[in-house]
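Quiz preparation item.
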């Protein structure tokens, strides 16, 4: 079964006059990226590829915990009591992360770097087993979004604070590529980084950029959900992307800040649609931390377009927020 989501638009995307679809791609953040765009026959595909790659490389240089020379790594190593100036893009992402953290009462928390490492989802070596309780308690003491202090674009290091922006930075990277394409005069494109998407405009045939919303590999219900991305982004957080197994239990990469451990409830994946991919990414992460019914209630209260899939007695159970259900084509 295939169902279609049609977002409410002030006006439909204009059909490009002339031009053809170019496909670009590369690697970033341990995954792949791709761009499809409508360009005139004279367009320089190599130059456009380099443009996108520069934006992505900039996000990595600023916000990657895997790069020891990144601005984020530098902040995490800073001496207690020091202030570190942040690049404007980094400061913007961190401020938005704090907004989402406050709105979700800490379900989204950009300060879990030490805990991410302990649980094996960061750059540090991992034993393959859950960490010791004493180590978790120690890392938990220095975590917490309320510990973040900004003065302009400078960040205070209280001692041991470890930022991790992996729940928002990839979506921001999508937005940065989209903004670069806008500045280059590209009016119709679909940007994708590791499954996070943003689209605008129409293809030469007048059709919008149709994409299929991600479902877990274990889903066998045959249900497909298509969305027309025009001025819209989609991000999915799923427990099947990165995980380890130990002692008969599965530990996924999304951490519950309250438990200082991987999420333990039955949510399998959350997809959020939003204007910016940064927001879609952050909200999807936050809703994954919440229990399924709590996530649905939060999405409804905050007018978020969200699809929540969770394990149930009879298999996967789907919950659609009112904002997303309103997009269903009857």
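Solution:
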């Amino acid at each position: 079964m295939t169902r279609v989501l049609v977002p409410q638009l002030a006006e439909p995307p204009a059909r490009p006059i002339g031009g053809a679809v170019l496909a670009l791609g590369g690697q970033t953040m341990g995954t792949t990226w791709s761009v499809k765009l409508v360009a005139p026959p004279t367009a320089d595909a190599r130059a456009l590829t380099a443009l996108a790659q520069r934006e992505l490389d900039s996000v990595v240089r600023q916000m990657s915990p895997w790069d020891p020379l990144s601005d984020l790594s530098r902040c995490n190593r800073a001496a207690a009591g020091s202030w570190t100036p942040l690049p404007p893009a980094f400061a913007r992402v961190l401020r938005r992360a704090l907004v989402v953290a406050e709105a979700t009462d800490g379900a989204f928390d950009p300060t879990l770097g030490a805990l991410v490492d302990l649980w094996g989802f960061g750059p540090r070596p991992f034993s393959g087993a859950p960490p010791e309780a004493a180590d978790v308690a120690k890392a938990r003491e220095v975590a917490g979004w309320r510990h973040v202090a900004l003065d302009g674009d400078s960040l205070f290091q209280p001692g041991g604070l470890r930022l991790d922006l992996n729940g928002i930075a990839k979506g921001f990277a999508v937005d940065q590529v989209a903004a670069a394409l806008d500045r280059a005069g590209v009016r119709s494109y679909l940007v994708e980084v590791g499954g996070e998407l943003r689209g605008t405009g129409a293809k030469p045939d007048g059709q919008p950029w149709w994409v299929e919303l991600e479902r877990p590999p274990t889903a066998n219900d045959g249900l497909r959900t298509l969305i027309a991305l025009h001025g819209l982004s989609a991000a999915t957080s799923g427990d099947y992307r990165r995980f380890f197994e130990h002692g008969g239990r599965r530990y996924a990469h999304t951490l519950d800040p309250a438990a200082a451990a991987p999420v333990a409830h039955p949510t399998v994946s959350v997809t959020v649609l939003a204007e910016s991919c940064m927001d879609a990414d952050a909200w999807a992460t936050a809703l994954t931390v919440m229990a399924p019914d709590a996530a649905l209630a939060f999405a409804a209260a905050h007018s978020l377009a969200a699809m929540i899939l969770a394990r149930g007695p009879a298999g996967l159970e789907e919950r659609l927020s009112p904002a997303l259900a309103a997009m269903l084509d009857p």
